Amino acid sequence: MEKQVTTCPPGKLKIINAMRSLLEDRTFESLTISEIAITAGVTEGLIYKYFKDKRDLLHHVLKEHYEQFLIQIDRDLQGIDGALNKLKKIIWSSIERYANHRVFARIILLEVRNSEEYFQSEAYALVRQFNRLIIEIINEGVADGEIREDLPPASIRNAIFGTLEHSCLNRAIFNEEVSTNDTAKSITELLFNGIRR
Amino acid sequence: MEKQVTTCPPGKLKIINAMRSLLEDRTFESLTISEIAITAGVTEGLIYKYFKDKRDLLHHVLKEHYEQFLIQIDRDLQGIDGALNKLKKIIWSSIERYANHRVFARIILLEVRNSEEYFQSEAYALVRQFNRLIIEIINEGVADGEIREDLPPASIRNAIFGTLEHSCLNRAIFNEEVSTNDTAKSITELLFNGIRR
DNA sequence: AAATTTAGTAAATAAAATTTACCTTCTGGC
DNA sequence: GCCAGAAGGTAAATTTTATTTACTAAATTT
Fold first, then answer.
1. Where along chain A do its domains lie?
2. CB contact under 8 A, B163 and A159
3. DSSP conformational letter for B83
4. CATH superfamily of the domain spanning B1-50
5. CB–CB of B113 and A152 under 8 A?
6. pLDDT 10s digit of each residue in chain B, 197 long?
7. Cα of A134 to nearest chain B Cα, Å
8. Which of the four CATH numbers 1.10.357.10, 3.40.718.10, 1.25.40.10, 3.30.450.40 does domain A54-193 have?
9. How far is B161 from chain A (nearest CA, A)?
10. A51, A88, A150, B133: least buried by Cβ within 10 Å?
11. Cα torsion at A132, A137, A138, A143 (round to 10°)?
């Protein structure tokens, strides 16, 4: 009956927040455990109490971000009908997320995919979940005749993800501005109707 | 008058080859200088004689790969007319390169973009050069009426690069097979004509 | 033939990550 | 009311890696 949330110990929270804040303008590799500990105001040992290693902490931060992202996507999709409309909304929401959460964008686009452990992490499980959602929507669109049936759904998903990510790469790397509405509009237009005149 | 090639010292060559070969099935982060030196059959110090640090060596390997890639692209484009035909060929050539040169794909898709130094490297200068080529072709296509003029060229480029890269990500990460012809065909179809039925 | 550069080694140093041993406080069961 | 053990935390040692330094020996230049 009780709220079984097992509230996060303050030290752990401080570590996570320090990591988030340091990643705001530093690369993962350039951060040291000592630096993270100092920023968090805890000792280095405590980091290893809560996380297997530096990467595990990174994956944890990503997981929290991704959970928020999925919750928002879920909301955003409420009441939207039709596969293309759903994809359009997902494109918009994703851009919006990358544009306004640079740490999230940097972690997922630049920092995690180069390690094997990531693909065993809970964060990656969430990514796969999002992937499945997209594939479902594409299949729905093909079934309804909204989407061409001569393209492999995986290709369509790759195009959507790839275009989205590449469009936000300069934001993640160089901190360039991204106009969510304009970018989402161009991408949607492009992917839905093609570049051919 | 002489051939001014300043032939590469054998030790340097051995280091580069060791790096290439280790990256075949290991991530950059997981490699140690000591391991690279042993594989190359040289001492650790020699690596620092020729390269600023571990990353500098990585960038050098990428640069060599990218040079080969650009030479091949140049050849592949010979005699091809029309912006869409050129883009089609570039898509095919890129997929082919990623599919058959996994180390190249891994380095550029997974290992370099997370460091600031990369964007100062000679390797990145080559990437920008390729980028400009694509933009030129897109502009040519718009001018000729082959490509829609209502989409920003940068968006089109992002879509092409992004889709290409995402289509080869599973190849780079999980060593999954990629059929160059099928993949190139789907991507081209998709980007040229859109996913809408 | 002296002077300098080039290719290379071996050992020291520095910088990180990770582990270990320990201390305190709180909590549930007797 | 108390005590065993878990939970939160520290401080210092250890290990692992990257990087630097000081030094040969051969080749090249002058």
1. 1-50, 54-193
2. yes
3. H
4. Homeodomain-like (1.10.10.60)
5. no
6. 333 456 889 999 999 999 999 999 999 999 999 999 999 999 999 999 999 999 999 999 999 999 999 999 999 999 999 999 999 999 999 999 999 999 999 999 999 999 999 999 999 999 999 999 999 999 999 999 999 999 999 999 999 999 999 999 999 999 999 999 999 999 999 999 999 99
7. 14
8. 1.10.357.10
9. 7
10. A150
11. 130
